[in-house]
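Notes taken during the Thursday session

The instructor put the following on the board and asked us to keep it in front of us for the whole hour. The protein is ABC transmembrane type-1 domain-containing protein. We were told not to look anything up and to reason only from what is written here. First, the residues (139 in total):
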Amino acid sequence: MLSRVFCRTGYDICYKYCFERYLVVIVAVVEKTVVVVVVVVIVVVIAVVEVVVVGVVVVVVVEVVVVVVEVVVVVVVVVVVVVVAVVVIVVVAVVVVVVVAVVVVVVVAVVVVVVVVAAAATLDVVVDFRVGGKGGYLW
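Then, after some discussion, the predicted structure tokens were revealed:
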């Protein structure tokens, strides 16, 4: 209001106060523009940070899932290999035990047969000698 009065009454005073008035308006516009620009920059930065953070979180989650899947696959493979190895070891052990048992039985049977045959032959010769069989006694 004061600037209006001075602007109407004298040129010098009018110029001074009118310029100040316009300067105040310009400063206010610049301030508001700066505030708007700062707010827009903050919003854009927050949006970019959110996108980056969400992207990083998604990447981290994907990496964690991949690592978990890899660990599960490794554990499953190790378990399968161990189970197969145990089964193979047990089967081989059973086969070896059976083969050894069969060999032992065959060897024992052969030894028994040989001993029985040898004993029978010896008894036959002794019996022959005693009874006067083919070999006979010398008298």
